[in-house]
Amino acid sequence: MSRKTEFEQIYCDIAPTAGREELHRIQKGTPPLSWSQGAFSLGGSLDKPPDSSAIGLKLKGQLKTAKTVSPAGWIELENSPPGIPPVSDIFVAGSRPLPSPDITCICRHPMNPTLLLAAVKDSRLLFLDSALNANLSITSQTMLPGPIVSMAASGNRIIALSGDNQPAILILTFDRTGYKVIDISRVDLTVCLVALAEDDAEHVWGLNPAGVIYKIQICTAGVGQVARAVLTEQCRLRKKTLVSAGIRQIALSIYRAIRNHNYKLWGLFSGRGAFRSLAYDGRFLWVVRTGGQSDSSHLLSLYDMSGKLLQAFTIWPEAAVSGLGFSHQGLMLLDRAGLRYHHAHIIDSMRPVTGISVAGSSHPGYLPAGTNATAGIHDLCLLYVGGEGSQRVHRYDSDKLRPLVGYVGASGQMEDPFMDGFLLMAQYSPLLNGRAFATDLEGPPSRHEDWIALFDEYFHSSANLTALDTCAAEMARCMPRDAARYRLKVVLALPVPDPRCTDWDQKGTSLADPGRRVEVLTWAMQELLGRWDRAENRRLELVGFYYMTEQGSYDDPVLHAFPRLCRQHGLKSFAIPGITSTWMTEFCRAGFDGVALQPSHAFRKPMGRPPKYWLKCAARIAREYRMGMEIELPYNVLEPTGRAIVMDYLDMARIQGWTGGFKAYFQSYNLIYQLARSDDPACRSLYEDLYKFSRLSRNREERPTVLFQGVLPVEWEGRFSGESGESRFRLNIEGHQGDFQINQLSVIKK
Hints:
This protein is of the alpha+beta class and 750 residues long. It has 14 helices and 43 strands. The chain has 3 domains: 7-84 and 712-749, Jelly Rolls (Sandwich), CATH 2.60.120.260; 89-347, Methylamine Dehydrogenase, Chain H; 372-695, TIM Barrel. An 8-stranded parallel β-barrel has the order 28-33-34-35-36-37-38-39, surrounded by 5 helices. Strands 1-3-42-6-27 form a 5-stranded antiparallel sheet. A 4-stranded antiparallel sheet has the order 2-43-4-41, with no helix packed on it.
């Protein structure tokens, strides 16, 4: 590394083992820096904005596995110009019920990324399984000397704030397994604190009710030795939101408050209220305070280290935050009123510009294509049948399906398999009465007669499934070596039983009761299975059912019953929630098998945010919750602007590592067909690009998630986007399980 300092303001969102202060050694060329397990981000700025000589970053190091066999992980480079707001949006996701109604605080486990720690009023410390489907189940517990109200990791320890009358902190030391507390030291404090936040291996942050932030140095000489805590005032937080937050954030706060219906805006913006919770993300402080004299309203605020208010956010209706924590690019939100835990993803305006696995595979976080979870499907094409509103009924004949089933060359004949999965679904009744099949669509709820009409359309004598079987047989004849085993995988959408429906079957049957809605789904599955057996589609295989809604619903018994009902028939459950859905990750928690996330990039144009913003947001969430991704063709795909949007999806898939992941394709009714049959060379070229893209997850040379043992050398390079003035950067290092050691970080120059 050059002796010249090339970086400034280096930070990490999770403290390294040696402490966050030692990050600055990288500026002096003193290796190495080590992070133990889990994902982290390393960011900063260049001394000067990139010019013609500064074109990227180079990283050298090694990865040491924590288990016998571990995944290799992924490195992603983002960059941007300086001066943009630190946060663009916050997505509340990963919601789970609390295992106890008396939990006072939650923090990450300092040694095990698969666990969370929770303190309970009765002086218990709970070890919680953080896996989605585990729903924070208690794996073990231990007793503490008294109640605690806040916790923060510090190296391999937990620093806890005592809940008794005497201000004090408890230092909890774990054994090597991380499951047993082997020592507890108490240190009395001279000031009253309400919350702690993680800093590094030697320090934590403290917050008092008046908004004073203290840096607390924890001094210990070993197990059984007397410990000390040295408090140094860092800053005093300023409350005047109307002066400091900015017009855009004030407008967003007002909008959220109107959605919530239960917030007193003047109380939130007046500067009144007490500070309650604290988190630290490596650069900034996240704080929750009450609005006015009422504890029913809260404000989430972002401050710099001088105490200046940068941004303010009202709390969302799905998350009444009463406690904060931080974990890689996300806030840990404790909702004691709703008895829930939420993970909120923090999204900024930095742009992903390149990404690569340290061992040459795709990002290991996404739901892999072609696995048992997806019933072997790599690419799932959406086929909308039924009513186009109340205007006409849409059907697929063989001509429309042929360019989807197989790649159609210049000769007009299928040459190679294209999509290997097809989802038949509908939004509105084929009876053209405007009744909707999903609760998140406009229109009155569908009834029994509408469901029967939809099922009739699925099994139309000359269209839809019948035509798909014909095309599959044609494709099989084009591949004689694999013809015997060639099958297209089919997923059939089930309408969502609407609780608003008071007379579902013209016999006065109401669907208000969840048990009755489950009975309706059970009947629908049996009805479709019976029709499938009678149809005898020889080249089609029914592999699953789709729950026809994009909106998750927290603890909806019908949604949670759907995967179980599918499994009873030996089938998979599928869902495609949207990035704007309130409970987008609820399908994962409910146990759905094949989930793909809609980015909405083709249809949403966020103001003041960088290109491909929604793709970045969706991919970030999808890889954390093991979802696939959806590629969405805009309605104007035959125009240059529409084609450019599709290329954004293909480009970001390579940058963010989801080329090998499970993918769904929204193409309205016939958009891919129109590209294939277009006389415009640019449209035809896009059709070929989509076909080539679909092969990336099925290419025999494409390696699956790489597993390794021992020590894996890491040598990685990432290039900037090339736009002037971009001096900020961030490396997201994810997907590994072990110790990540950085020996060199330098600027690539021409």
